[in-house]
Design brief:
Elements (H helix, E strand, L loop, with lengths): L23 E9 L2 E10 L2 E6 L10 E3 L4 E4 L1 E6 L12 H10 L2 E6 L11 H11 L6 E4 L1 E2 L8 H9 L5 E4 L13 H14 L2 E5 L3 H6 L8 H7 L2 H18 L2 E4 L8 H9 L4 E5 L1 H5 L21 H12 L5 E2 L31 H11 L4 H16 L15 E11 L18 E11 L2 E2 L16
Parallel strand pairs: 1-4, 1-5, 6-7, 7-8, 9-10, 10-11, 11-12, 12-13, 13-14
Antiparallel strand pairs: 1-2, 2-3, 5-15, 15-16, 16-17
Helix pairs in contact: 3-4, 4-7, 7-8, 11-12
Length: about 475
């Protein structure tokens, strides 16, 4: 489908300056769940009070006219590793959420690792909430964790659920940090029976440890070595097992950061069978190919790995066909020493990509090249992830929703300057890459949050 654009859309003023607060914001391209329309969005009490025709504005209203700039819902990134407390030298709430705001992301959900302690008890959750309070630029929710040979206890799961976590994360393969051990399929099945009774979402790093154990270990500067160490079969075997587990337990299971497009066959079969299995992917799997990763460029290392060009195209096909609930960053930064920048050794480097500030633009770059439109972008990075997490008041421009808004120029582009990124370490595979779209302003509940502004984010809890 072609990118939406009104033929008669006026050009924006050359000296347009975003206000600190919006009361009414008007655009020829307001991206709503029903499509892209010319409209005036009325904000009151931090929420969207009305969406009217552009000229249906009271004489005394403070109107921000965007002209031809698009108005998008704030993105919802449900897969972010903030790492605080415990590994704040990798990333922290202040830096991560400033980066999110700068990139048009207004809500993040923090993973239970790599913080110390991990979020596997209410006490750990409260410690994380306490350190986050007062320094977050966007709204922040939290996942709980399922760990160890016997999984997290039934009592811990129930207490964390009652305390408002958005669900529970487990690893089928080693996580990379000793305080968050992976679980066997048997342990996950026991936990899934409990999460099914709670009605909770269980999200899983889905790689088969037996396949990984049989693969050659990664070592040295060659990216091909890292790629061989995490073959697609590790993902396909794990996804098939999760589909079977969803059928056996009725638990809501979600496959995190799918990289191997071959696994989409099982995802499609599960969907057709009505099984409660969902899946996400990440901007880096839709942006980079194994063929282009330079040897020694450990900023590209992630697990599962970036795969070949043909795989990327199949992932895009799956996204367009609606097989993914959304695209989220899996923002997992680390300091240059932990990323083995000095040696370029893929065997020793931490596996994680820093991209919370760049995700929506990276997705838009690929979407635009494939003739997708702004409504698709909003569904993939905002509405879909919000719905999946149960955030009905986020990720959409609709009456009653939070006025989380992004002023976006979809026709412009710029080269990523890593030094200008807001996350703690300016180390990302997107450095020097041209991305389409420019974020001109980000609003949280109608107040501007990008740039050097006081933190205005709130801590979120799952409702219901």
């Amino acid at each position: 489908m072609p990118a939406e654009r009104s033929a008669a859309a006026p050009k924006r003023p050359k000296a347009w300056e975003p206000p600190e607060r919006v009361e009414v914001v008007r655009s020829r391209r307001v991206v709503t769940p029903g499509g892209v329309i010319a409209a005036a969005v009325h904000v009151a009490g931090g929420r969207i009070a009305a969406i009217t025709a552009p000229d249906e504005v009271g004489p005394d209203a403070a109107v921000t006219d965007l002209g031809d700039l698009a108005l998008l819902p704030g993105a919802v990134d449900a897969h972010v590793h903030v790492n605080e407390p415990g590994r704040t030298h990798w990333e922290g709430f202040a830096t991560a959420t400033r980066a999110a705001a700068a990139g048009g992301v207004t809500t993040i959900i923090d993973m239970p690792l790599n913080s110390i302690p991990p979020t596997t008890s209410v006490a750990a959750l409260e410690a994380k909430r306490a350190v986050a309070a007062g320094q977050i630029s966007v709204d922040v929710g939290f996942w709980g964790g399922i760990i160890g040979a016997d999984a997290t206890s039934v009592r811990d799961l129930a207490e964390l659920h009652d305390a408002g976590v958005f669900g529970f994360k487990a690893f089928l393969a080693p996580s990379g940090v000793e305080e968050f051990p992976h679980v066997s399929m048997e342990a996950l099945a026991a936990a899934a029976r409990h999460t099914a009774r709670l009605g909770a979402l269980t999200v899983v790093h889905a790689e088969s440890p037996s396949v990984l154990d049989a693969a050659p270990a990664a070592a040295g500067r060659a990216f091909a070595s890292w790629l061989r160490s995490r073959p697609p079969a590790a993902e396909t075997e794990a996804v098939a097992a999760l589909a079977a587990l969803a059928g056996a337990t009725g638990a809501r299971l979600h496959v995190l950061h799918l990289a191997a497009a071959e696994a989409l066959d099982d995802v499609l079969a599960a969907r057709d069978a009505g099984l409660p299995l969902t899946v996400e992917t990440c901007p880096h799997y839709l942006s980079f190919t194994a063929e282009e990763v330079p040897d020694g460029a450990t900023e590209f290392k992630c697990a599962p790995p970036i795969r070949e060009r043909a795989n990327l195209e199949r992932l895009w096909d799956g996204l367009v066909e609606g097989l993914f609930v959304g695209v989220v960053s899996d923002h997992s930064p680390a300091s240059p020493d932990v990323k083995s920048v000095d040696t370029g050794d893929f065997g020793t480097a931490w596996g994680g990509i820093a991209s919370v500030q760049l995700g929506p633009r990276a997705v838009w770059t690929g979407a635009r090249a494939r003739s997708a439109g702004l409504a698709d972008l909003a569904r993939w990075v905002a509405t879909g992830p919000a719905d999946h997490a149960g955030l009905a008041h986020k990720g959409r421009i609709a009456v009653g929703a939070d006025a989380d808004l992004v002023v976006f120029d979809p026709e412009s582009s710029s080269v990523v300057d890593a030094a200008a990124l807001a996350h703690r370490h300016p180390l990302t595979p997107y450095a020097g890459r041209t991305l389409d779209g420019v974020v001109h302003a980000t609003y949280l509940r109608g107040r501007r949050i990008d740039g050097d502004r006081p933190p205005r984010g709130q801590l979120l809890s799952r409702s219901g």
